[in-house]
Specification:
It is built from 19 helices and 16 strands. It is of the alpha+beta class. Strand 8 and strand 9 form a beta hairpin. Helix 7 runs parallel beside helix 16. The radius of gyration is 33 Å and the shape is elongated.
Length: 563
């Protein structure tokens, strides 16, 4: 038995709140917001910057409804660590909504620029290559679309095929350096992706104060209007060519007429590439760009397998169609022709298969008159001709072989010169396009961007701005850790189950390591009280070191100081 048993010990969870406070301080988020967004003189306690810090913290802790933030402040010590001078009851939803309205009135972009620039400067983010990817986010319930302010929540093309739900479009631009989010913007739910790229490029130019970065996007960027605008304003872009007829014709011609390809080592395989000139006219002006055609072994294998599967499924579907002919809804040439076309369209195999519908009528005879004939009387017969259709499927082996040859090749279009952008650099820029897509998936899954619990469109826009700041903090935490792990050439041990030397830790896992850190106080036998903070484990201290968070952020004086 111990000599002394403490019967009154009070503890409060601290978790990773000090780490968040450190990064909020480094990025000066609260200060920048308070310096720019005017505060109503009647607001005496909670500033707009402090309200934003509280809402960003709520996003990271999955407290996504404004009315729940007040209860979150009462139930946990997270906000009391980050904002120790603010009482929990100050985070009521009407006060937070006032901040959202104030930021919208000030201008989201006007506030987004200085905050992101401060982060870029503090953490030395490289912005020579920027990626953009729009996505759609579905919403549930009633939304106030009567106001003229803010985006319009409406039906549109859903990326997750939920045409029954209203949505908005969210376009996110990131740096190739660690997929750091640079700029975001919300659009009406029925906005086509093709109409967002030029505006996003313009916003990046304003943010970075330069035009010479390489703008990477998907194939919807490649329109004459978009390419001409970026090129005429001294910008650079690269994106896959869409397979419309004009681009497909240029792509196939380049494949047929090229004579040499360059070998490009990539991971554990060797890719190939070559380039050809690409030109078009727009508004009576000629543009000469580059079409870079790359060959990827992994892509070729997947596409060849898919091509064989489509051909086999087409044959199987026609074989299953044959016994159903001349019955029910397949008795006419038109209905059979439609069924055949549906099969070719479903398996995208019209290029490789043709079919002929043949009719061999069957002649039968029946009595001309109804009823039983008289005894000894030969009934008069009439001829009945019934259509009997058959379908013959023809396989175009030459076209199929040509398609197999093209498998693995894909075209990129860029206006950057060969001296400034080699084929190898172009390939890597395109292969890193997964970065904004990964951030979008992470926002929707891990941080639950959907559903949005705010019902006013203009407040949704501001909330998305705060959501992007939360993503920025997550990426900065991961980037700092991975940079320091690379510098010391040693990963984290005892960090993940059954794994050693982890060099790419996720922010969620690093922060979870501090889940059971507590602060508290106890009543000693002599009547005095004693305060304490959990002693950090060696792993926790190592994580703080690679995150560049000083140990004093978890000290007793720091956590209990409310001055």
């Amino acid at each position: 038995m111990p000599d002394v048993v403490m019967k009154s010990v009070h503890t409060e969870g601290v978790g990773f709140a000090p780490i968040l406070r450190c990064y909020f301080d480094k990025c000066r988020i609260q200060q920048i917001i308070d310096d720019n967004v005017p505060l109503d003189p009647r607001r005496k306690v909670l500033s707009h910057g402090e309200a934003c810090v509280a809402m960003i913290t709520g996003i990271l802790f999955q407290v996504l409804q404004l009315y729940r933030l007040c209860r979150f402040a009462f139930d946990t010590t997270v906000l009391s660590v980050i904002l120790p001078h603010i009482a929990p009851h100050e985070y009521f939803d009407d006060r937070l909504a006032d901040t959202l309205d104030a930021i919208y009135d000030y201008g989201i972009g006007n506030l987004e620029m200085p905050i992101t620039r401060e982060m870029i400067a503090q953490f030395d983010i490289d912005n020579h290559v920027c990626h953009n990817d729009p996505t759609s986010a579905s919403v549930y319930g009633e939304y106030n679309n009567k106001t003229s302010e803010g985006i319009k929540i409406t039906y549109g093309h859903s990326k997750k095929h939920r045409q029954d739900l209203k949505q908005f479009v969210w376009s996110l631009s990131v740096s190739s350096d660690s997929a750091f989010p640079l700029f975001q913007q919300a659009y009406n739910g029925n906005t086509a992706d093709v109409n967002t790229y030029v505006e996003q490029w313009t916003r990046l130019v304003d943010l970075l104060d330069r035009e010479d970065f390489l703008y990477v996007a998907d194939s919807k960027l490649i329109t004459k209007e978009n390419m001409a605008h970026i090129h005429d304003h001294d910008g650079y872009f690269i994106a896959p060519a869409p397979m419309y007829e004009s681009y497909k014709k240029a792509f196939f011609a380049a494949l047929e007429n090229h004579h040499q390809e360059r070998l490009i080592p990539y991971k554990d395989q060797t890719n190939r590439g070559f380039e050809a000139p690409f030109s078009f006219s727009h508004n009576q002006k000629e543009y000469e760009f580059r079409m870079i055609i790359l060959y990827d072994q992994g892509l070729a294998s997947r596409k060849r397998n898919a091509l064989h599967n489509r051909a086999e499924k087409t044959r199987q579907a026609f074989a299953e169609l044959t016994p159903r002919l001349n019955a029910y809804q397949l008795k006419t040439r038109e209905s059979i022709d439609k069924a055949c076309n549906d099969i070719l369209r479903k398996y995208q195999s019209a290029e490789f298969f043709t079919y002929t519908i043949s009719n061999e009528p069957v002649v039968t005879y029946k009595n001309k008159k109804k009823g039983r004939p008289k005894n000894g009387e030969e009934p008069e017969k009439v001829e009945v001709i019934t259509d009997h259709f058959s379908v013959a499927l023809h396989f175009n082996e030459t076209a199929f072989e040509e398609a197999l040859y093209r498998c693995g090749y894909y075209p990129l279009i860029t206006n950057k010169s060969q001296e400034d952008l080699s084929i190898e650099e172009a390939m890597m820029a395109h292969k890193h396009q997964y970065k904004p897509e990964h951030i979008n998936r992470r926002a929707k899954s891990g941080f639950k961007l959907e559903p949005v619990y705010i019902h006013t469109p203009k407040r949704i826009e501001v909330y998305l701005f705060l959501f992007k700041i939360a993503l920025q903090l997550v990426i900065l935490i991961e980037r700092t850790a991975r940079k320091n792990l690379q510098a010391r050439d040693k990963g984290l041990d005892n960090f993940m189950p059954n794994r050693k030397d982890v060099r790419n830790p996720r922010a969620e896992n690093m922060l979870k390591a501090f889940e059971y850190v507590v602060r508290g106080h106890m009543q000693l036998p002599d009547g005095t009280s004693c305060g304490f903070v959990s002693e950090l484990t060696p792993l926790q201290r190592e994580i703080l070191k690679i995150l560049e968070v000083p140990d004093h952020f978890f000290s007793y004086d720091y956590l209990f100081d409310t001055s």
